[in-house]
Every structure is written in structure tokens, then in C-alpha cells.
Amino acid sequence: MKVHGEETMQSKICLNKKLIFLPLLYLILFLSNLYAIENKIVLKINNEIVTSLDIKNEIQYLKSLNPSIKNLSQEKINLIGKNSLIREKIKENEILKYVENIQIEKKILDKLINNRYSKLDFSTKNQFLEYLKINQVDINIIEKKISIEAVWNQLIYSKFSSKVKIDENNLKKKIKGLNDKKKKSYLLSEIFFKISDKKILNTKYDEIKNIILENGFESAALTYSISDSSEIGGKLEWIEENSLNKTIKENLSKLEKDSFTRPIFTQNGYLILKIRDIKFTQIQYDEESQLKKLIDYETNQQLNQYSNNYFNKIKKDIIINEF
Fold first, then answer.
1. Same domain (yes/no): 215, 277
2. pLDDT at 285
């Protein structure tokens, strides 16, 4: 009887182990299936797969840079995240045709990160890191994205800098007579967009304007702008009025702080500018340094045009499949 009892007890133990093991197995299978449902393939860019989790992480990144994205519908947020990833993947793939690894010097990376958190009104990197932690964004993701953008800009410079044309005599004329006058500067935000037909310009503007009025300029920039500044709501640095071309200057001169222009025609598309702030500075111009600033600004403007054109050209050869 003792032996029989022991065998019975052992049988119960084995049975209990099976009962414990089976639900655990079901749980593992359930969680695996659940993860598979949540993390599904959404895009294929050439041979590279983009999953729903990739887009979710991209949206989280964009929200950390521009919290106003939360004001948009989930459908628009998903579209912004998807387009942002497509743009980045296309640039990354193109860069890797010319270099083995996408890396930049640490001191340059630190400077670019400094610029990024300064635009978000953080005074130290530690504050920025804490903010990213709260928003569940890895600093490595930020570093990778900044590196891709920096190397892309280097690629554009190497390809097109020789084609940049600067009329120094015209720039010198702008500087003349400015001494002892107040310098006017704008803190601007931009929305840069393209349309297939001029006939739909007013309709497109009304669409963008409604988003601006309902959700703010930053949300509209995230939704409609194809400029790299869209990630941070279209925010630009302070720009001196005399650095701007005549058309833009005339459009801005009619506006006050917190107002925005109608679409301004440029060679590559249309530009809507918002004045975030205006300041006047009494300054004695140094002609040489002022000329350098104007040359740098004009050079950047032309290189940005080449960048947009080049991106659109290579995008045509990219196969993008949506699932």
C-alpha cells in the first residue's frame, strides 16, 4: 500500500506539473501571437522592411520633438510617422552607396545635439536626456537620425557645392547704408509644400490654413511640410531681414508677430512662413562679417533646393510597397 501511495503521489505531482506547464505554454503562445498582431509589416522600401513597431517608435520620437502632434487625428499622426520613416530610409540607403558606415565626429554630433535641445528650450543635455527618458525615446535614436541628416548634407555639398552661384556684388549692395540703422530680425517657422497643379493652390492653402487655426502651425508643418524642419514643427533660427530675398521680405513686412503668410512661390514649391517673434537691434555692421553671413545663408538656400531636387529624383527609383 505504501508503494502504491507513493506511485499515486508521484502521478499527482506529474499531473500537476503538466497542468502548470500547459497554461504557461498557452500564455507564451498567446503573447507571441499578440506581439505578431501588433508588430506587423507595414512597408517595404526596396528590400527593407518597416513594421508597425518602427512607425510607433518614429511617432514617439516625433512627439518628443513636437508635442503639438498630439492635437492631430491618429490617422494623420500615423501618416506623418510613415512618411518620416520613408524619407529617412531613402536618404540612408543613398548615403550607404558612398560610405560603409554613417558616422560623424563626436564633437560635431555633440554640437548638433546641443542645437536640437536648445530649440526645445532645454539649457543642458542632462535636461534633454531626462525629457527623452520620460517620453521613452532612446538618445541613440536621436544620434542616429542626426548623423543621417548630417552625412546627407555632406553628400549634397560634395555633389552640388560647385553649382552654387553667389552674386557678391548684389549682396554688398544690400549691406551698404545699413550702418547706424536698426537691424530687424525674424524668428520664423516654415511650411514648404508642392502641388501638381497651380489651380489647386487656393484649395491646398485653405486646407493647411484650417489645420493651422485648429491645431497650430507646428502641427500643420508636421502634416504638410516636406522640409527637414517639419520634424520640429517647421522652426527656423533667427534670420535677419536683409538676408531674405525681396519677395519674402515684402510678405513678412505686412505681418505682425504670430501671423503667417499666404503661400510664397519659390523655384521648387510654395512656402508659408509664420513670424514667431520680431526684434530690432542697434548695431554697427562689419561689412566683411555681414557679407559672410549673407553668403552662407544664400549658399544654404541653394543647397536646400538641390537637396530637395536630388531626393525627389532618387525617390522615383525606390520601390515602396504598402501592406
1. yes
2. 67
Specify the residue for cell string 504598402.
322
Cβ proximity of 73 and 240 under 8 Å:
no
One domain for residues 82 and 151: yes
- Provide the grid cell at 73: 487625428
Read off the CATH number of the domain in which 75 is found: 1.10.4030
Residues 69 and 156 in one domain: yes
Distances in whole angstroms, Cα of residue 260 to Cα of each of 78, 176, 255, 264: 26, 29, 7, 11
177 Ramachandran zone, left/alpha/beta (phi>0; psi -120 to 50): left
> Which residues fall within 8 angstroms of residue 282, CB to CB, at 6 or more apart?
182, 183
**Count of alpha carbons within 13 Å of 225, Cβ hemisphere only?**
26
On whether both 3 and 51 belong to a single domain, the answer is: no
DSSP secondary structure string for all residues of 186-250: EEEEEEEE--S-GGGHHHHHHHHHHHHHHH-HHHHHHHH--SGGGGGTTEEEEEEGGGS-HHHHH
Taking only the tens place, the pLDDT of each residue in 106-117 is 999 999 999 888
Distances (CA, A) of 159 to 156, 312, 315: 5, 15, 17
Beta-bridge mates of residue 186 = 239, 278
Domain that holds residue 17: 1-38
Split into its structural domains, the chain has a count of 3
pLDDT tens readout for residues 166-220: 999 988 887 776 665 678 999 999 999 999 899 999 999 999 999 999 999 999 9
pLDDT surpasses 80 at 38: no
- The Cα-based distances of 22 to 15, 30, 84, 147 in angstroms read 11, 12, 44, 48
Question: Does residue 137 belong to any structural domain of this protein?
Answer: yes
Same domain? 48 vs 158: yes
**Three-state DSSP state, 86:** helix
